[in-house]
Amino acid sequence: MSIRIGEVIAVQGTKVVLRIDEQSSKETLFHGGAKYKGVSIREYLSIRRGFRDIICMVEGEYLDESRVETADGKASFIRKVDARPIGFFDRHGFTQGIKFLPMIQDAAYLLPEERIRSIFDRKADSSFRIGRMLKEEIAVGLPWQRLFNSHIGIFGNTGSGKSNTLAKLYTLLFDQKLPRIEGKSRFVILDFNGEYVGEQLAPAAHKRVYQLSTQEQPGGANAGGKFPLAPTEFWDLETLSLLFQATMNTQRPFLSRVLTGKARYDANPGSLNVYAKSKFRQAFCAGEVRPATLDLMRAIARRVNFQALEELLKDVSWHSNQGRFHLGNNYFDADGGRYDFHIAPTVDELDTAGLDDFDQLIVRVNLQLISDLNAGFVQFEHIQPLLKRVESSLKSMRRVLSIGNAAEEERVLTVVSLRRCNNEVKKVLPLLFAKHYYNTHKTTVAAPPDRTVHLIVDEAHNILSDQSTRESESWKDYRLELFEEIIKEGRKFGMFVTIASQRPADISPTIVSQLHNFFIHRLVNDRDLFLIDNTISTLDALSRSLIPGLSQGCCVVTGTAFELPMVIQVDRLPSNKQPASEDVDLEKLWSEAPD
């Protein structure tokens, strides 16, 4: 038996108007040993219609203008509320959606807490709880099976509790499901701010952390380790185009020629030495000599640390009026005689055997450009920017990447921290890692997928922004298209993406539109709210209106895994499990005496 609180007095489409008894305005009521919430905005009511209970959510409240004089002379006002049906109870339980509507004079009742819990908890795991519903203060489980089998978006302004929600979600998952996950799923976090390199999320035995750094480490070593790439993956057109931001129409085809030449002759030992010597001869003895090739040859000599060749090339000069190179009084022409006497003996001692993959790449790029310039395939000014990027990026890339065939020990959770990396690396490497895991997984997984990969991108606006003006449009399009492919096609191969961001409006709309479930913390910017309003079809107007005023740790949860939007106050993690994103306590900081 429940508490009757009023009756239906109007039904206008899907809007129901109820007249509420005066005594039901209390915040909490107890009846028959059960606890009930009084009538207020966003509370749930039951309207009895035959053998079904139609469940409605209160959306508005007002007083009727008319009033009634009671016997003691006091005025009594008629209280009315607007409500919206969200589903119904019958003998099969709760069904979401508007199928039945009440009629005038149907009685309205309060719902006990247990029945409200059954609305939200019926398809969820009651043990998978990250917090309590804000209004009802009921701990509700989340449907983890449907949640982690989807793309997830976690949005909120800085300080709104976004990082705690992300950490709570995956900490609870690993705490409860780790034995069942191991060997079947991998989780990879791209961590821009180094928030998850400690004891967060998973036990150390199941977690691998790469603290990448482009800064010089004491003793010349990289204390945080390097991310391993196989040589076949490094010497790949997509990888090199990503690392060096190659333009689509000129620089990418140039890199393709570099890789084609390597693949053709790489099986022969010493092939690079032979190739280098032939291109040096061609540069000096071509019928139509290109002056830019002299600088390219000097760069190769520096890269292989061949000092004798460096000194020799310093003495070579270009005579524009004759269109050929000179060494003192000797000039070099197409017959190659003077080259064989003055240059070839030194060039023949050139040895590239000790070069690592990065240095070898620079040598091959310079040699290919010498070849293309002499053949008239390219304009030097079109390829030179790529050449400069390859050379300037070398130092940073060598500090964060390790090229080798050593197998990576597979663990459930991999954290890639980019906190100590420069901006160029922060922009490029996350896409390389996403491609690394996506392609590896896509080519090895069965159909249907028997394994999954979950990519978690914290502060996703750093790499998924379509508002950035710091790069060319062609590169930005290429960067976004690569990640859009992963988020659009990855689900078929068992790859799922979680993105967390302070500014969802900065992220590509294509990516946001492909997300299935959302945890939305406080957002106050109009562009962010407009995106949320126009992208998330499962978000009702009342829940949307709460977003700008949500308190810290409170979020609106909605999406395909949830039949109804919920407002949840997420529990705070213990201090040793919290992400390293807490605000500075100035009172404590400034109260400490200086050393």
Automatic annotation (TrEMBL):
Which Pfam family, giving just one, matches this sequence?
A: DUF87
CDD domains, sorted: TrwB_TraG_TraD_VirD4
**Which organism was this protein described from?**
Variovorax gossypii
Q: Which residues form the Helicase HerA central domain?
A: 129-267
Keywords, in A-Z order = ATP-binding, Nucleotide-binding
Q: Select a single GO molecular function from the record's annotations and give it.
A: ATP binding
- Specify the protein name: ATP-binding protein
Where does the source fall among the domains of life?
Bacteria
- Alphabetical list of PANTHER family matching this protein: HELICASE MJ1565-RELATED
